[in-house]
Amino acid sequence: MKICRFLVLFASLCLSLRLPAWSQVTAPRLGLVRYGDGGVYPIYGVAGNYVVGPRFLDSVDRLSFSQSGGLLVRQGALLLIDSNLQTVASFDTGGDTPTVAVGKDLGSAIAWLPARHLLVYSNGTALRSVTVADSTWNGQVIDLEKSSLDSASLLLLNSEMGSVEEARLSLTSGAVLSISSLAGAAGRVFRQGDTLFCLNLEKLNVTSMGTGAIRSIPIRVQDLTFERVSSNAIHLHSPSSGRDWLLHTSGEKAGDGPWLYELPPPPSGAAQ
Hints:
Blueprint: H1 2-17, E1 29-34, E2 40-46, E3 49-52, E4 60-66, E5 69-74, E6 77-82, E7 87-92, E8 99-101, E9 110-113, E10 118-122, E11 127-131, E12 140-148, E13 151-157, E14 163-170, E15 176-186, E16 189-192, E17 195-199, E18 203-208, E19 214-218, E20 225-230, E21 233-238, E22 243-248, E23 259-262
Antiparallel strand pairs: 1-2, 2-3, 4-5, 5-6, 6-7, 8-9, 9-10, 10-11, 12-13, 13-14, 14-15, 16-17, 17-18, 18-19, 20-21, 21-22, 22-23
């Protein structure tokens, strides 16, 4: 297709000029993807026609991004990044590997540090923390969101039962406000707004928390990880197969979405 050929040629030109990775292509930047090598790459183009830009950051352990910026974990630090990819604030993880999430803006950024039982959250310009001392809840935190200015919602996976619960916590005191079962959720679940995504029998199940409606998208893998790469796109990675996809949750002209397309492999070479 013409747009794909144009993007490839333009990206090659920018590589030869050695421009900064995030300023190289004038086509839409769809998001920032962390591939299996730990490198972060910008993705350009339109849904289903992608160009992977040069790697601009190495050794990233986790990330979550929206159009306003995001959170990433690198070299023992939790970094709050703006839309120009400049560091706004940082927090020492103490060697922990957080679960991170960002909603529509930087003020929605939040992270869970499991070893320290610590919630780290953003007010838009700084990162603050609160210890969750309550031990009446258990389970692995697989996703979370800052649901209001003073509360957070955590999805907890019971590894033995495979069930998922939702815990609401106070960001002021760290107290557990409520715990409830998440109907229709099982296994490793990822949430975007009021929609749940989970892998089940080589199908990606998409469940509306409001209506309970379920849609299934075939995807022939046994394992998936999820990372938010923009306000309306999620990166899916299969560690066993090494394959990657972008799940577009909005933006298509018509249809009942979301829409899933496989990503090309990243280019070789060190970060610029």
